[in-house]
Amino acid sequence: MNRRKKVFISLLASSLILLAICIGGMFCADTARLTDFSRKNLSPSLDCLFGTDWMGRDMLARTLRGLSISILLGILTAAASAVTALILGVVSATLGKAADTVITFCIDLIMGIPHILLLILISVAMGKGFKGVALGIALTHWPSLARLIRAEVIQLRESPYILIAEKMGKSKWYIARKHLIPHLMSQFLVGLVLIFPHAVLHESSITFLGFGLSSEQPAIGIILSESMKYLITGKWWLALFPGAMLVLVVVLFYKAGENLRKLTEPGSVHE
Amino acid sequence: MRKRVISIVCAAALTAGLLAGCGQGTENKEKKAAEADRDSVVVTMPTTSEPEEGFDPAYGWGAGEHVHEPLIQSTLTVTTKDLKIENDLATDYQVSEDGLTWTVTIRDDVKFTDGETLTAEDVAFTYNNCKEKSSVNDFTMLEKASALDDTTVEFQMTKPFSIWPYTMAIVGIVPEHAYNENYGQNPIGSGRYIMKQWDRGQQVIFEANPDYYGEAPKMKKVTVLFMEEDAALAAAMAGEVDVAHTAASYSEQAVDGYELFAVQTVDNRGFNLPASDPQEKDGITYGNVFTSDINVRRAINIGIDRDEMIENVLNGHGTKAFSVCDKMPWYNSACEVEYDPDGAKKLLEDAGWKEGKDGIREKDGERAAFTLMFSSGDSVRQALAEDTANQLKELGIEVTTEGVGWDVAYDRAQSEPLVWGWGAHTPMELYNIYHTLSDTGIGQAEYSPYANETVDKYMDEAQETATLEESYELWQKAQWDGATGITQEGDIPWIWLCNVDHLYFVRDGLQVAEQKIHPHGHGWSIINNVDQWSWE
Q: Looking at residue B83, what is its pLDDT?
């Protein structure tokens, strides 16, 4: 088995685990909200692997459901951000000086404000909840990728085959479609996957701070902020497992992104 | 990847450090206990108890959303342990025939802590100032306060208000000569304690007033620390405080050297059931199709097992609630109901709510369902909402819970049930909840649509009686007069679940004097009588 295959298998494995968590979470939607006061504050056992909380909710179901909400939000927002980045990056580099100035200004503006602050601002302005968080993350995560793509396009534009295409009288749209976008695809994909862990972490942090999802929902941020209140009484399982699972998911996404990069741009290994 | 490993190692090291820190707590505790001064006490309170605007009654100190004795200032009257009225600064008070003039004579031997004598001028100034500035308490019934001589003050009212003595029990008298916009930071009063130091966001230190006109306080120094419940528990475990406030979810925790102390309260939790048909005004929906059916409201009231709820949610630290004013002199015991799930189901059946395929009842295509809101971050209200949902499911009613912020809760509660907390040492609470207000919303009760002319009439009359005793009877009639009211047999627009005991970890050896029934608010009430506390 060569290294390429190993990387591929590792990518497949992490995607499968993430998919499993996602699907598991969908089946747990009801169980995660079910309260049963006859079994509250149980420590982890074979019956409930992650224990239960102060309202007798099963922590395994809550964790899975929370992660699947996070992953879903992550996919949604990462896709939205990445597409925004792609469009703005290409537009900025091809449509001339004025467009470039405006878009670069936007990128600098958004990157200049602390990420989490801007997120909270947008989320609160949009009335919190799923909508607020999704918009907040989607609107704040595109600039770095957009800047990368813009730089790439500027460089590409000077390359001989594109200059030749221009001389041959091909339209700008034709060049973008046939020459630019295929070339940018690998960077776009890797960028997309690497926005995931950011999106997931940011979703859970603003929910943790109370500016995100509403408190009856089993989001990881809610679970963690609730567990903080009970750590002092020795209920370690409330924070440990959900926290560890969150880290696991983020690491898996990160690994998947790295592996994807190795597969699509073999040259990047030497960088 | 290496960076990540390093950060994990750092986190592990930090955790180890924390654990080691916990170990030191025990030594610390013994030292503290040995050194403890015999006449000082350290008490914790929730961070929300810290008065934002300072210790000024005009901005809610004592007379705000949560009522308590102002300690630094003295009041004209005080409430007794059974919540009747006694004189404090006042030596006597009288009300005119028409109920529009209150004449109060005050003691002539009282001095502010800056040495000036407290006169009727100061009293009049305090009340006029409160009327002008207070946004947290209602002073609209007061027209004007004026001093007739040094020891007599006259209150002219805009309308008869028989329960005025209860207002007089929470308004601390401030000195006119030393009052300015910074008064809240440097309060001067004539009360049992002097405020020595206030570190915003952390603590307030009180010292006994050596010239206090009443019995000298036994506790010479009182330190109040503001912190969350988990921090308070940690402080108790480390032996750093004498009284730590706590919640039911921590009540099973044993803390060495401390005992759990539960105070009965009228700090109730309940939810509103909008009692009118839906209509819209100014973008807000008022009323709810499902809960406007009186049989639904009655079924919910008897279909809730309050005992089970208290056991589950409050670990047994609470009492069943049937009204907003349980155990108060103006409470009508007709509010009480028995848990009767079969009766509840029968009520629903008879009213035409038949069970559908999924076990949820329906009537004319309308599902027996509502959203029960609770304030985000309040674990007790959340658990009560969840338990209510579980219990009502047995009846075939589908309840979805939702956490909301107070920014939207008031408007949404006009059409959807919300878990509320109430309870005060004044019958005005009944008025606030059940009496209609013609100039707000759709002209029904302020917080949840409800209107009943007879109930309104009793409450209006209650405010016009000559004596408090007569008014108690009318307040009771407003709840149930034998034909109509707000009880199970009446309109039942609010469901009351439980009164939440206020829980504290109290250091062994500290005698916390007998407490009045605490009102809503887990803060200052505990030290209402801190001057009578003692160490064994």
A: 83
Q: Which of B497, B495, B463 is nearest to B138 (CA)?
A: B463
Is residue B350 exposed (0-12), middle (13-18) or buried (19+ Cβ within 10 Å)? exposed
| Tens-place pLDDT, residues A198-251 | 899 999 999 999 888 888 888 899 999 989 888 888 889 999 999 999 999 999
Q: Containing H/E element for B40? A: strand B40-45
- 3-state SS of A96-142 is CHHHHHHHHHHHHHHHHCCHHHHHHHHHHHCCCHHHHHHHHHHHHCC
Q: What burial class does residue B210 get, using C-beta atoms within 10 Å of its C-beta: 0-12 exposed, 13-18 middle, 19+ buried?
A: exposed
What residues pair up with B252 in beta bridges, in sequence order? none
DSSP A189-250: HHHHHHHHHHHHHHHHHHHHTTSSS-TTS--HHHHHHHHHHHHTTT-THHHHHHHHHHHHHH
pLDDT cut 70: percent of chain B above it? 93
**How close, in Å, is residue B377 to chain A by CA atoms?**
7
Q: Are B144 and B156 in contact (CB under 8 A)?
A: yes
Contact between residue B147 and residue B121 where contact means Cβ atoms under 8 Å apart: yes
Which of B228, B379, B394 has the most A C-beta neighbours within 10 Å, making it the best mutation to test the interface with A? B379
- Among A215, A230, A233, beta carbon nearest to B403: A215
Are B51 and B67 contacting, i.e. CB atoms less than 8 angstroms apart?
no
Pairs of CB atoms within 8 A across A/B:
50
CA neighbor of B55 nearest in space, from B187, B200, B193 = B187
Neighbours of A174 (CB within 10 A): 12
The Cα-based distances of B153 to B141, B252, B314 in angstroms read 17, 51, 46
Residue of A nearest to B22 (CA): A232
Distance CA A37, CA A57 (A): 8
Mean pLDDT of A84-102: 86
Helix, strand or coil for residue B419?
Answer: strand
Token pair, residue A175, equals 């060049």
Find out whether B506 and B255 touch, Cβ atoms under 8 Å.
Answer: no
User: Is the confidence metric ipTM above 0.85 for this complex?
Assistant: no
User: Which of B7, B306, B312 to substitute to test the interface with A, most A CBs within 10 Å?
Assistant: B312
For every residue of B117-184, which 3-state class applies, written as one string?
ECCHHHHHHHHHHHHHHCCCCCCCCEEEEEEEECCEEEEEECCCCCCHHHHHCCCCCCCHHHCCCCCC
Distance from CA of B245 to the nearest CA of A (A): 14
Q: What is B459-518 written as a DSSP string?
A: HHHHHH-SSHHHHHHHHHHHHB-SS-BSSTTTT--EEEEEEEPEEEEEETTEE-PPPPPB
